[in-house]
Amino acid sequence: MSSRFPKMLMLISACTLAAFVCFQGATSGQTKDRNERGRKLYVQYCASCHGMDAKGSGPVKSALKVAPTDLTTIAQRNGGKFSAQDVQLHINGENDIPAHGTKDMPVWGSYFRSASGQGVATLNINALTKYLEAIQVK
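Below the sequence we write its predicted structure tokens.
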């Protein structure tokens, strides 16, 4: 792990807290069709880079070498099909994502497993995937 990782982790943590506070102001109508576990996981682990709107406008965007992806257009970029399996592989760290760094940088799948075990990790990845599917542009 590089010496930059702890600094980046602190920056992401601070931005995640700020994003969470902002997100609390959202109305329940905005999230009624989305699973709560997935939404909370998104806010905690993804919003600092991808933004509260999931369009790649998170508060740490300027500190990244590669701009975060617009997560609301996953299906659109895949011919109108949302592949839950592909999304799960990305979250799990099984597909390379240049913006997430090399494989020795922790990815969320390995973090979830080390923090909570395989069962909870699977639940988290599934919930996050369902949340991302729910926010796809039509």
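The CA atoms of residues 19 and 101 lie 23 Å apart.
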